[in-house]
Amino acid sequence: MTTRRRLLAALPALSLAACGTPRTGGRADGPVQDLTVATFNIWHDQGDWPGRLPLIEATLRATEADVIGLQEVLQDGDTLPNQARTLADRLGMQMVFSSVDAGDQPRRYGNALLTRLPILDYDWVKLEPLDDYRTAQRIRCRRADGTVIDIANTHFHHTAEGGAIRARQIAHLLDWLPDDGTPLILMGDLNAPLDNPEMAPLRARFSEALQTLYPDQADRTTLNTALGHRSVQIDHILYEAAAFTPVEAAIIGDQPVGEVWPSDHFAKMARFRTV
């Protein structure tokens, strides 16, 4: 993992041509049996967005992810096309976007899921409390081996003292997610470490990929302290242990290129085998 992590961290400094081309259904030596996912809070249009965009693209491209969850995605009329659509087009992926902002508004802010897998179903929900403007989204996908999986992406309330708000969001999310036995991965910016009290319902159902494989990294920050944030791991990739076995996990996108950072968060990736 350490070698892979160094490689992924260094890739934004390379030319995009050196990052290879996106997968479109499997490696040349046969269907891909593993499932790779990534999550990244892309910090909407803050900082040097034109300079950050290729760094985010390179970071995500290097993971060869089948599904990517993005948070803090913005579109703003003609001045800023939907950031997730821009990344999806560059990576050769499908994209679904969720926002509490009406579809006919020029400025919309929300979350997005990108995938290479066929999408069988898509849904999203505005999370309680409704005045906090948070959403969750879910895609049901079919993998190359025919198995069907659910991937959910969300972004919880952000204040450190907002545990009660996150508790309501977690309860609403878990009630909303399908309960039909389809294997589920949940990822996103949960805005709290997993040992917070309000996260107990998530801990009861899910394990976290990085913390399972590398317990010594359980407290490693996913907030960018170089941009003034506290050191805390709040971005997570959660999985149902009865359905998935993590075989690789890493924090990535954690290095600047020159003076430009990809985001004020670091990304996470995880690779799974189905049980």
Query: How many strands, which pairing sense, and closed or not: the largest β-sheet?
Result: 6 strands, mixed
* Strand-pairing-aware structural class: alpha+beta
Q: Which sequence of strands runs across the widest sheet?
A: 3-4-2-1-12-11
Number of E-state strands: 12
The secondary-structure element order is HEHEHEEEEEHEHEHEEE
Topology:
Blueprint: H1 2-10, E1 35-41, H2 49-63, E2 67-76, H3 83-91, E3 94-99, E4 107-115, E5 119-126, E6 135-142, E7 148-155, H4 163-176, E8 184-189, H5 200-205, E9 207-208, H6 209-213, E10 235-239, E11 244-252, E12 267-274
Parallel strand pairs: 1-2, 7-8
Antiparallel strand pairs: 1-12, 2-4, 3-4, 5-6, 6-7, 8-10, 9-10, 11-12
Descriptive account of the structure:
The protein has 275 residues and is an alpha+beta fold. It has helices spanning 2-10, 49-63, 83-91, 163-176, 200-205, 209-213, and strands spanning 35-41, 67-76, 94-99, 107-115, 119-126, 135-142, 148-155, 184-189, 207-208, 235-239, 244-252, 267-274. The protein contains six helices and twelve strands. The strands form two sheets. Strands 3-4-2-1-12-11 form a six-stranded mixed β-sheet. Helix 2 links the parallel strand 1 (35-41) and strand 2 (67-76). The longest helix is centred in the N-terminal third of the chain and has 15 residues, at 49-63.
